[in-house]
């Protein structure tokens, strides 16, 4: 009978909703390493973080928000790598670049300069302190939340330790997505731009 089919369908949807809720609770209650303005680190839950929070990510850590990477370090230098198999099914590692890039002009002011990454942010060996963050002033602008996992538009304005102002354009190469896992990278410091239901994976 039709009523039985409808009842089974509603029951299945209820089970799926319950599973999704449990999965969200698991993700949201994971510990997150919040970087304070003085460079110290305190442990919070991901659900406690807000847009603009600065976090420290370690190798093999699953990311629980959409984050613009500010700096990274390890054997690969300033380049970070993430695994996105849980998002798009691809097992190859993807390169992600720090947002804090600055243009260095040569002797000819009419020629485009070379871009380098600000290296003033450094994480201590035991991962309990982020040096350089207290002198850094960063303003990240991001596009409105959307579901496109392969596209991101934004900009970062920052003043380096020497007091010089810089502005860089952001793309998907600077974004760490919720559900991705940090790989082959000792540490990343990033700023949260989308949380919860506004992350690209949730829309």
Structural descriptors:
alpha+beta, 203 residues, three-stranded antiparallel β-sheet, single chain, 36% strand, six-stranded antiparallel β-sheet
Estimate the global geometry from the Cα principal axes. elongated
Q: How do the strands line up in the largest sheet?
A: 2-1-3-16-4-14
Q: Mean pLDDT score, rounded? A: 86
Pick out the low-confidence regions. Answer: none
The succession of helices and strands, N to C, reads: HEEEEEHEEEEEEEEEEE
Helix % is 10-25%
How many beta-strand segments?
16
Helical stretch tally:
2
Main sheet overview: 6 strands, antiparallel
Q: What fraction of residues sit in β-strands?
A: 35-45%
Distance between the termini: 36 Å
Gyration radius from CA atoms, angstroms:
20 Å
Q: Return the structural class.
A: alpha+beta
The gist of it:
15% of the residues lie in helices and 36% in strands. It has two helices and 16 strands. The radius of gyration is 20 Å and the shape is elongated.
């Amino acid at each position: 009978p039709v009523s039985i089919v409808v009842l089974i369908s509603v029951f299945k949807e209820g089970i799926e909703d319950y599973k999704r809720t449990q999965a969200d609770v698991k993700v949201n209650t994971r510990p997150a390493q919040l970087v304070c303005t003085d460079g110290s680190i305190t442990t919070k839950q991901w659900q406690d973080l807000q847009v603009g929070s600065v976090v420290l990510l370690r190798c093999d850590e699953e990311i629980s928000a959409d984050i613009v990477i500010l700096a990274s370090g390890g054997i690969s230098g300033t380049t970070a790598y993430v695994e996105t198999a849980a998002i798009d099914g691809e097992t190859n590692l993807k390169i992600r670049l720090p947002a804090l890039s600055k243009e260095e002009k040569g002797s000819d002011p009419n020629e485009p300069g070379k871009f380098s990454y600000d290296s003033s942010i450094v994480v201590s060996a035991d991962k309990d302190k982020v040096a350089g963050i207290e002198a850094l002033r960063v303003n990240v602008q991001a596009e409105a939340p959307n579901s496109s996992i392969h596209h991101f538009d934004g900009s970062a304005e920052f003043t380096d330790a020497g007091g010089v102002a810089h502005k860089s354009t952001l793309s998907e190469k600077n974004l760490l997505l919720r559900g991705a896992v940090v790989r082959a990278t000792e540490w990343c410091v990033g700023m949260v731009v989308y949380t919860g239901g506004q992350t690209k994976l949730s829309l």
